Amino acid sequence: MTDNNASASPTPVTVIGLGLMGRSLAGAFLKAGHPTTVWNRTASKADLLVAEGARLAPTAGDAVRAGSLTIVCLTDYRAVRELLGASDVDLDGTTLVNLTSGDSAQAREAARWAGERGARYLDGAIMAVPPVIGTADAVILHSGPHQAFEEYESALGALGTVTHLGEDHGLASLYDMAGLTMMWSVLNAWLQGTALLRTAGVDAATYAPFARQMAAGVAEWLPGYAGQIDRGSYPAEVAALETDARAMAHLIEESEALGVNAELPKLFKAMADRAIAAGHGGEQYPVLIEEFTKPAGA
Ligand code: NAP
Fold first, then answer.
1. What is the pLDDT of residue 5?
2. I need a surface site. Which of 15, 108, 198, 281 has the fewest CB within 10 A?
3. How far is the CA of 267 from the centre of ligand 1 (A)?
4. In CATH, what number does 174-292 get?
5. Tell me: the pLDDT tens digits for 155-190?
6. Is residue 7 scored above 60 in pLDDT?
7. Mean pLDDT across the stretch 235-260?
8. In sequence order, which residues have a C-beta less than 8 Å from that of residue 215 and are 6 or more positions away?
9. What residue's CA is closest to ligand 1, atom 1?
10. Distance 18 CA to ligand 1 centre (A)
């Protein structure tokens, strides 16, 4: 793992795609002293970067030829294939780092596609927003050949805290998805609680510090619960799932009584009820992994 390292030796780098994210990526490379070539379909988005010292390539093919490291950050994988699959773009010998968001199947397919064109391919997931790029708070995950990552790790470190997850090209996208489900689950749970408390005149700002403390407390349970999942053994050391299910029923009843949306607690309870029906009521909460590791209704 590396964080933004301004002392890395200058490495020529190409950034293709200068949307909100691509402009921040190129800006961070420039700031760290790396000779930066850029290209964007709408050329005017390069103006500020050119004023800061970037070189604007006339075509995407020229941009790729400018050096051996190419970062691409477009709307989606389809745009990447359309652009870099064009006849004037030669990927042979390039290390292509694709920071476009997508899923793991797209990442693995893009790796195969790039490999056929002679490129070394690293997939990447940016777990940060543009203003944070170039600081240690910008977490950027990579997967694909470790050797390629190692070769460019110090240059990539200009973007933030960069990590190599493994050789499987799909890993960065999978971690991205896992992070998103964590983000939305925490936010939805907080919104459910906020809706309940508003019925008693408690505003969101008053509840937020308590909610943050709860979320941080629950996060502390994860390593121990992960151990249970990895061992496949779920003794009820703290509470049994059927105890949780009774509390879920209270949450549903309270929500409905107060005229608050009860869809989320009903989802929790439906999953717990299935696990209890399968004989897991006396085990601890992480036994629900068995519900999560199969499609709904299976
Ligand atoms: P954006 O501002 O909408 O920029 C999209 C970029 O893709 C532009 O450079 C656009 O070119 C280019 N593009 C789209 N279709 C193209 C095509 N067919 N051929 C050539 N260029 C094409 O989006 P963004 O916020 O920079 O996001 C880019 C990627 O980063 C996405 O995959 C996004 O999920 C990911 N990401 C973004 C954030 C964020 O907070 N913004 C955070 C994490 C990850 P034009 O300028 O010519 O339209």
1. 44
2. 198
3. 34
4. 1.10.1040.10
5. 999 999 999 999 999 999 999 999 999 999 999 999
6. no
7. 97
8. 186, 189, 190
9. 19
10. 7
- Ligand 1 center to residue 42 CA distance, Å? 11
For ligand 1, the distance from its centroid to the CA atom of residue 134, given in whole angstroms, is 18
Instruction: Give the Cα separation of 292 and 289 in Å (integer).
Output: 5
Q: Which atom of ligand 1 is nearest to the CA of 76?
A: 32
- Ranking 7-21, 71-85, 115-129, 151-165 by mean pLDDT, the lowest is 7-21
Pocket of ligand 1 (CB under 6 A): 17-22, 40-42, 45, 73-75, 79, 82-83, 100-101, 126, 129-130
C-alpha of residue 144 to centroid of ligand 1, in Å:
22
Q: Six-digit token pair at 55?
A: 């070189």
For residue 223, what are its two tokens? Answer: 């390593």
Q: Is the pTM for the entire model greater than 0.85?
A: yes
Closest C-alpha to ligand 1, atom 4: 19
Q: State whether the Cα torsion 129-135-136-142 is positive or negative.
A: positive
Task: Judge whether 28 and 134 are in contact, CB under 8 Å.
Answer: yes
| Residue type at position 127 | M
CATH architecture group of domain 13-167: 3-Layer(aba) Sandwich (3.40)
Token pair 């968001």 is found at 101
**Nearest alpha-carbon partner for 102 in 177, 31, 40, 36:** 177
The distance of Cα 261 from the centroid of its chain, to the nearest Å, equals 29
For 7, counting Cβ atoms within 10 Å of its Cβ (0-12 exposed, 13-18 middle, 19+ buried), the class is: exposed
Residue of 25, 39, 49, 74 to test ligand 1 pocket, by largest number of atoms within 8 Å of CB: 74
Q: Check pLDDT > 90 for residue 4.
A: no
**Tokens encoding 27:** 């800006």
Q: What are the structural domain ranges in the chain?
A: 13-167, 174-292
| Gap between the Cα atoms of 263 and 275, Å rounded | 19
In whole angstroms, give the CA distance from residue 298 to residue 294. Answer: 7
Phi, psi values for residue 259, rounded to 5°: 75, 25
